[in-house]
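Recap from last week: sequence in, structure out.
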Amino acid sequence: MVIVSIMRAGQGLLDGILELIPTARVGHIGLYRDPSTLVAVEYYFKVPHDIDQRDVLIVDPMLATGNSAVAAVDRIKESNPESIRFLCLLAAPEGIEHFHKYHPEIPLYTAAIDEKLDPHGYIIPGLGDAGDRLYGTR
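Predicted structure tokens:
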């Protein structure tokens, strides 16, 4: 098993998953959301060299627009792993719909689904920006 964390916001979730699966290998994808277009921009990618022989669990605390989740799965698919799953704590209906539009075959697991997205792509009522909360930025 390889756990791939979408960096910045995903670190706290990664730590918890590693308590459950301590033998998992770890990879990271650095993505940020362009504030004007809401498109995911990659700035870092590092995964174990043998990812093609493993199952992958991509973790990110929130699935808002779905753009980062789609970009992460696109990038991981290039490595041809055995399987891919996506795990988040909170999702917006629009993000789930967007994710399934591009990756209907990838299982998506979430603990809760909130109401909707606001015009800036934030989940309503949501929790605020996970990265900002975790690192005290913004």
